[in-house]
Amino acid sequence: MLNWLLISTSIDYNNIMAHYSEKLSSLVLTDNMDMKKHSSFSTGGCAEYYAEPRNVYDCLTVLEVAYQKGLCVTVIGAGTHLLVSDTGIPGLVISTASMKGMTIKGNLVITAPGEALDNVINQAIDHNLIGLEEIAGIPGTIAGAVSVNASANDKSISDFFLYADYISKDGHIHRRPCFHDYFKKQKSAFRSDEMIISIALRLTPSRASAEARVRKEQYVEKMYIPPCRRFSGEIFRDSPEMRADTAIRIAGLTGPNGMKAEFSEYQPNSIVTYPGCTSREIYTLIENGRNEVKAKLGIDLDLSLTLLGDFQN
Predict the structure, then answer these.
(1) Angle, nearest 10°, between helix axes 117-126 and 209-223?
(2) Are 49 and 30 in contact (CB under 8 A)?
């Protein structure tokens, strides 16, 4: 496997770099990265190129390389809400999972994209800020939660969202404010090639932090993440007619089915996999489930899970 050591490069990106005084850190760009290591399903092929920046300077550097090489860019977090094709992902995959850091100012929580959602919730409660515990138990990073507008217990991340700073694929830095027209339930307000670099959430000050922590742990237990960790959260969006988990349960799709992937008996709108499972098998389960719900209940289920790569061949 070939590794390139990238250093500070020359493109100006309309003087964006003039806003920063720190030196660009070195960054390793890897080819043929096995995406099984970066997906909660532990399935899928290789990314043509892969990078894991640790700060905004790394982000700008790797985007410049993508620009120079004419590579398409796909941004991911910790890989908890995506399914990678067994044939892999063309172009450059950028993971923001290593971008850490958090600041709390009054009732604002400002966090880097790679912080785990669970950690953001815990830190907020420690500072007597409540609200986020309502969506506890959703696996993955805070940026991943924002990207899909993660929802649970009738709350969505957009209920607390103030703004996010992100870099577009041309290297420009933007701020997206809390205009909720950007968000729909379990729908992304960001494109797959837009890289979130900072998120600000506005929470509610409260002295009832102990009660909030109890609620948070209850929601975590309710979500249930299997010990095998081969789990990705909700697969389908709720339809206007019925919740997706209810539709899957009524259609009798949960539990063992002869494959190495199955709809969870505890959380029907999630999939648990077993060693040896492939992305094709998971995709087949999803399509069969969607067709069965349509045939038995007349309900169309839209996919919430993100598909990366080719699933048509």
Answers:
(1) 160
(2) yes
